[in-house]
């Protein structure tokens, strides 16, 4: 081998194995970093664009179910996202939730056939009637 054909082994030489790591970070800087937590406490991170809907997130997660999560849901259609204590409707995009791009957001993922309905009229009336009053009793 001549000196012209020799490969420089010095650390300053960029190796192709360094490029995918940098490219991956660059690819995800415009995406929402979503950490999903199951009821059993197991977590996994995914990356999504702001245009991705909750239904698309559920389908992607179902199709790319992490091995360490073990028990897989029976269908992507029953997977529901919970963000800040509220179920997210399937047509809601991550961008509509104003999730920060490039930063970590945490949501829960639960299997559930249907979303809970709005409160019944009786529950709403009870909440209104107790507004501004203490819900305790006094014994004289």
Spatial order of the strands in the main sheet? 2-1-5-3-4
What is the CATH architecture descriptor of one domain? Roll
Low-confidence parts: 1-23
Which word captures the global form? globular
Q: Could you give the distance between the termini?
A: 102 Å
Query: How many strand elements?
Result: 5
| Integer average pLDDT | 77
CATH class of one domain: Alpha Beta
Structural category: alpha+beta
> Might you state the CATH topology name of one domain?
Ubiquitin-like (UB roll)
Characterise the protein shown here.
This protein is of the alpha+beta class. The protein has a domain at 29-115: Ubiquitin-like (UB roll) (Roll), CATH 3.10.20. The chain has helices spanning 18-28, 54-63, 121-130; strands at residues 32-37, 43-48, 79-83, 86-88, 104-111. It has a five-stranded mixed β-sheet with strand order 2-1-5-3-4, covered by helices on one side.
Gist?
With 140 residues, the protein is an alpha+beta fold. The protein has a domain at 29-115: Phosphatidylinositol 3-kinase Catalytic Subunit, Chain A, domain 1 (Ubiquitin-like (UB roll)), CATH 3.10.20.
Entry keywords:
140 residues, disordered N terminus, 3 helices, alpha+beta, Ubiquitin-like (UB roll), globular, 20% strand
Which SSEs are present, and which pair or pack?
Layout: H1 18-28, E1 32-37, E2 43-48, H2 54-63, E3 79-83, E4 86-88, E5 104-111, H3 121-130
Parallel strand pairs: 1-5
Antiparallel strand pairs: 1-2, 3-4, 3-5
